[in-house]
What we know:
Layout: H1 2-7, E1 30-33, E2 35-38, E3 47-50, E4 52-56, E5 66-76, E6 84-90, E7 116-118, E8 124-132, E9 145-153, E10 159-160, E11 167-173, H2 184-187, H3 192-200, H4 204-209, H5 216-229, E12 240-241, E13 246-247
Parallel strand pairs: 1-10, 4-11
Antiparallel strand pairs: 1-5, 2-3, 5-8, 6-7, 6-9, 9-11, 12-13
Amino acid sequence: xxxxxxxxxxxxxxxxxxxxxxxxxxxxxxxxxxxxxxxxxxxxxxxxxxxxxxxxxxxxxxxxxxxxxxxxxxxxxxxxxxxxxxxxxxxxxxxxxxxxxxxxxxxxxxxxxxxxxxxxxxxxxxxxxxxxxxxxxxxxxxxxxxxxxxxxxxxxxxxxxxxxxxxxxxxxxxxxxxxxxxxxxxxxxxxxxxxxxxxxxxxxxxxxxxxxxxxxxxxxxxxxxxxxxxxxxxxxxxxxxxxxxxxxx
Length: 249
């Protein structure tokens, strides 16, 4: 989104879980997870490799009950001449990664398939996992999150690639999480309702009426004006959301 690009211009550098890729492969076809993520602390295209991802469902419309998470897989070796089978299983606890599965099948995610097919003539494929929303707490204060640890399983068709890509950790929540580019110095304290206001501005109509491109201060001014003109209530405390703090009514 343009709003993230603009606000990232003045975001501080933060520690990331960038990993150096090392290793070699044989003639055997091998697969591994490779989740590439745009570095939120860098202006312009800069992809970093992550071994975990956060699925924050709080941004979705309230009527959406499930969401399909797409996790990239990569092939080592030559592209396949035929589709080949691979397997993914839920780990009680990670072996390569730290973490334990707390998400429950059919409550927080739909069951995985017995096996999947890696496409022929392709270097990459996508594992699709459906997560469920209704059982997750929407409270920003509680910040409830469920963890799903997934591991690739070697098959007769496909062996495993680099060890760093054997597993992936998925954290699932249903509140509007604080984005990594949010800085209190400019945007004030974080509150989900303030973030929702910023998302309201992400429209062509707003861009047509207000010259905010490459100017994060215009976003901030627009949010301040909105909070002054509209009574926005924090559902958990019953207080009014102000730019600098919650306000007693």
